[in-house]
Protein 1
Amino acid sequence: MYKIALCGNPNVGKSTIFNALTGLNQHTGNWTGKTVDLKEGSFKYKDNEYIIYDLPGTYSFLCHSKEEEITRDFITFENVDLTVVVVDALSLERNLNYVFQVLEMSDNVLLCVNLMDEASKNKISVNIDKLEKMLKIPIVGISAKNKNDINSLLNKIFDALKDNACNKIVIKYDKNIEKTLLDLEKIFPSSLSSYKKRFLSLRLLDDDFDFIKYIIKFYKIDIDKYFEIKNDLLDIGYDNDKIRDEYTTVISRHANYVARNAVSFAKKDYLKKAKFIDKVLTNKFFGLPIMFLFFLGILWITIVGSSIPSSFLFSIFNNFKNILNDLFFSLHLPNWFIDFFINGVYSVVTWIIAVMFPAMAIFFPLFTFLEDLGVLPRIAFNLDCCFKKCQTCGKQALTMLMGFGCNAVGVVGSRIIDSKRERVLSILTNSFIPCNGRFPTLIAIISIFIVGTSSNVLSAFYLGILIVFSIIITFIVTRILSFTILKGKKSSFILELPNYRRPNVRSILIHSFFDRTIFILFRAVKIAIPAGIILYLLSHCYFGESNLLTIFSSFFDPFGKFIGLDGTILLAFLLGFPANEIVVPILIMIYMKENSMVDASNLSFMKDLFITNGWTIKTALCFLTFMLFHFPCSTTMLTIYSETKSIKWTSLAFILPFFIGIILCLFINFVFLFL
Amino acid sequence: MDVICLELNQLNIGKKAIILDVLKSDLKRRFSELGILKGNLIECIYESPFRNPRAYLVNGTFISIRNEDAASIKVEVI
C-alpha cells in the first residue's frame, strides 16, 4: 500500500483530480496527533492499493499560515511515498514557485500539469518533455475532466513509485547562504539524509520561530552552535528580511527561467474573454444587480423545486411507517414501545429529513456550481467595500450566501477567511441570515397575515424585504462587534480572481453531497432523535387534565405575551431547536392538543387555527422577527463549537441573536401601542 | 521620455507598469507568493463598483488588491 500526498495552489483543479481518483471512496479523517481535518481517499490500480491525502491549497510556504504548516508538516514528516503537485498549465510560472518550494521538502515529487485542454484552447502550449528535462522529475500533462488523462496520471504514479524516482535538483542560493547551510547541515544527526538536512537547515534560517523551536527539540540540535552559525551570517549583514528576499528572488528566477523555456503563447491576449466577463460582472451599474438576480434565481429554484421531492419523501416515509408498525405488531412488541418509537423517534427524524434534504440537495449543487465556475470571488470583490466599513472583508459575503442554504454550512465556510478575528465575526453573525429551513415558514406567515391572499409575487416582495432587513442587521451587528469585543485591525483583501472554468458535474455532486448535504443531515438526525423523545414524553405525560406541553405553554405565556408572542410559540421555538423547519408543526400540534406533529400544508386551516388562538397582525410580525432572530438551530450550534472550539463564542452565538430578537419584538410592541 | 513613478493605486485602468518595490513589510510575503515582486510586470485591469478594491493582472492571473494596500507598491509606468 502506498501513501500519496496531493498538493498545489488553490484553483488548480486539485479536488477534481482527487474526486476523479477516489470517487466515493473518500472521507474526511482526523490527522492523528493534530486537530486537523484532512480529506483522504483510496483507490486501486494494477493490483496496488493507494491512499491519497488531499492537502490544503496554498500559494507558497512563505506566509506561515495554518494551511501551509499542515502541508509542510505532512510532506516532511509523514513519510509519504509520493507527493503529487498539481499545477495550472495557464499560469505555470506562479505555480512553479510553489513546485520549487515543494522540491526542497521532498525527494519524491511527481508534477501533474492540469488544465492542458484549457491551455491549448487559449493557444498556450506547455512542453512537458522540456519541463521534465529541466526539473528532472516525472511530469504528466492532463486535463482532469478527461478519463483517459486520469489513466495516464495513474500510470505515471505507478511508474514513479516503481522506479522509486527521486528528484536531484538542488536550488543554489548566494555563496554566503550556501556556506551557512553547509555549516548548519553539520549540526544535524548524521543519520539524516543529506536532502532533509538541507531542507531543515534552510528552515533554520527562516523566521518561523515555532518551527525552528520544533526542529531544535526534535533533532536535539545544539542551540549554541546554531546561534553561533546564524550570528555569523547576521554579522555580514544578512538579517531575516535579506535572507527572505534572497530566497524568494532565487526561486522566482528559477520559476521564470523554466516557464520561459517550456511555455509558449501563440495568441496575444488569452485572457480577453475573462476580462470581458469581469468588466460586465463588476460594472458600476450592472454588476450588483446581475449578482442579485443570480442569487434570487437560486433561492427561487430551491424553494419551488424542493416542494415536490419533499412531499414525495413524506409519502414514502409514511408508507414505511405503516410497514414498520405492522412489523413491530407481528413481533409482539409492547404497544407503548411501538407508539413511542413510531410517533416519537421515527416521525420526528423522517420529518426533518423530508424537509431538509431536498432543499439542501438543490441549493448546494447550485452554489458549488457557481463556486467551481469562478463567480464567487467576484461577488466578494464587488462587495468588499461594504464589509470593509465593518472592519471585515468581502469574503464574508460568501459565507452569508452559504448561510442562505444552511447556517451550519456558512459557519464551516468561514474557514475561507484568513484572519481569526474576521472569521469569528462571520461565524457569530451567520445565523442572522435566514436559512432554507426558515423560508417556507416565513412565506406561509407572510401570505396568511400580511398579503392575505395567496399572491406569490407580493409574498416574494415581502420576503425580499425580510432578507434585506436581515442583511442590514448583520452589517450593524458586525460593525458593533468589531468596535467592541472583537476590536482589531482589518486584514487585507488580496485575493486571486481565478479564470472562469467549465465546472465538472461529477465533482460538483460529490463535493456538495459529501461535504455539505450529508454532513449537515447527519448532524441534524443525531439531534432529532433525543428531540423526538423529549417531544413524545412532554406530550404524553399528563398531570390531571393537561399534558406537560400545555403546562409549559402556560408557564411561558406571561413572557411570551410580553414580547408579542405567546407561551406556545416560545415553547415551539424551544422544542424546534433541532431544526427550524419543525417549529410550525410543533406549534400546530400544541394548539390542536394533538400528540404528534401536524402538517401545515393547508394555509386557510392554519389561519383559522392561529386566529382562534389569539394571533393578530402584531403576533405575526413578532413571529416573523423572532423566526429571523433567535438562537441558531442545534446543528449550527454544534458546528460553531467544533469550528471555534470555544465555549465563549458558542454561547455568544446563542445569546446574541436571541437578545436581538427580543429587543426587536419589544420594539414592534412599542410601535403598536401608538397605532 | 520621462520615467513616471507612481504608487500602484494611482495606476490608471488599462495601464501597465513594472514593480519597483514593495514597501509594507507585513504584506510583502502575501504579495510575493502571488508574483508581485520587484521587476515583474503588472497591469490594472478593472475596478469594483465602489472603485475599491481594484483588479490587477500579474503573471497571467487576476488579483484583487485594496487601494490602501496597493499604495505600498511602487511602480514605473511603461
Protein 2
Amino acid sequence: MGLRVIGDLDDLERDLRTITRKAKTQLPATVLRNARRGNTIGRRLARESAGAHGKHYWKAWSAERHSPLIADYGPDAAHPDGQGDMSFNDGSRNQPAHNDLEKSQDVIGPAFAADVARQAGSWFWP
Amino acid sequence: MSTAPALDVRKHVEALQALINAAAAPNEAYPHGEAPGDSRNPDVDARRKPVPAIYALVSVSRRTVPTTRMNGRPSRTGWRVTVRWVGTTTSEALWLEQRISWALEGIALELDGLTSTPIQHESSGEVAPDEGRFSGLTRFTYAL
C-alpha cells in the first residue's frame, strides 16, 4: 500500500495565510511553557545545591510572562522568603557559584529551540 | 569507558590559571579554598599568609551537552568557567575583571591533544562588597 501526497501553490498560499493567525495564538503558550519548565529544572537544582543555609531559597524561584513572546524565570529578589537574591547562584569569595540558573538554561535552551521548530513545522500541511 | 574528551577538570583549571596569571601578573588565580590566607586551605603555610590584595578564583564544571547522534556516545564536552575577581577596592576588582576578559575571551585551550572552541563570554556580575573586599563574577563557556 502506498500513499501519495500532492500539494500545490494554493496549499502553500493557504498555509501562509493561516500561519499569522496560528502563530499568534500558539507561540505565547510555547514561550510560557518553556519558561515554566526551565523554572522547574532550576528550582530543583537550587533545592539540591543550597543546603541547610539556604533551605528556603528554592521557593523564591518563579516564572512570569512580560509580554506575549517574552517570559523569564529564576530567583526573585522580592520574594517574601528573602532568599531570592543571586548570592547562592553566583557564590562569593568563600563559596563557588552554584550556577543553578545556567545549568537549567543548558537543558531548557535546546529544548525550547526544538519546541519552537516543531511548532513551526506543524503549520505547514501535511 | 567514556568516549568524551578531556574529562580531567584539574587540567582545565591549570590551563585557565596560567592564562590569568600571565595577564594579571604579579596577581594570581587560585581554585576556591586554595588562596593564601584562606582558613580552608589544605596547605597550612599558605593558610597563615595574608590574603592577597588582588586575586582571582577559578572554577570549572562540565555542562550538559545534549547528544544528537542516535548512538548517544558523547564525542564532545561542554565546559563552564566561573571566575571571581577580588580586590580591596572596586577599582582593583574591575581592573582584574578586564585583565581576565583580555586573557580568556576568544582563546582556544589545548587539552589532551585537542583544541577547544574559543572561550566565549556568558555573563558578568556587578562588583559588590564581599566580606571585607570587593568582588564580582564572570562566566565563560567553551567546548572540546
